[in-house]
């Protein structure tokens, strides 16, 4: 869960708070052959869906954010489609216990209408991160914004144009940014593809 989350945050230029808002509902987390689209609501009560979609490409190798997300969803036994209106299938960031047989969500996969499933708080995420850091090759301090900043600077270093990075990170709006935001899927996919995730196991550089 931690590694998938960090990979998504890095590739999507997300803050921890953004990642915590990702819902696993199949209309809000759309997984395709070449990429996935993640809906980031503008606020916790974004009922009009005025947030934004972040596009993350599928890349080769074990650090692929899309592959890691799929693995987490299936191993964790998440439910992606509610059976009834109002049933909450919850956020992606929930505790998953890994067992010899695989993994499993610690809590229920969904709750009845009127109830809500909550994502991990940053403090809980951070505590868990301390435990997996050695095995993920991460030694430094990781802040809530590290992956967002690291994603942007890695993309900049690898030649992703500023407009495209701005659109991807949802920083500013200009005509150019709108162009990328609305239309250009190949350009959007280029952001993830240029992060170097496929070439080496680089979660270390991902979060620093
Ligand atoms: C993104 O990275 C570039 C290059 O490191 C930097 O100049 C720019 O300020 C960063 N943008 C944001 C919004 O952090």
From TrEMBL:
The keyword Signal applies. Residues 1-19 form the signal peptide. The keyword Nuclease does not apply. Gene3D superfamilies: Intergrase catalytic core. It comes from Gonium pectorale. GO terms for molecular function: DNA binding. Keywords: DNA recombination, Signal. GO terms for biological process: DNA integration; DNA recombination. This is Tyr recombinase domain-containing protein.
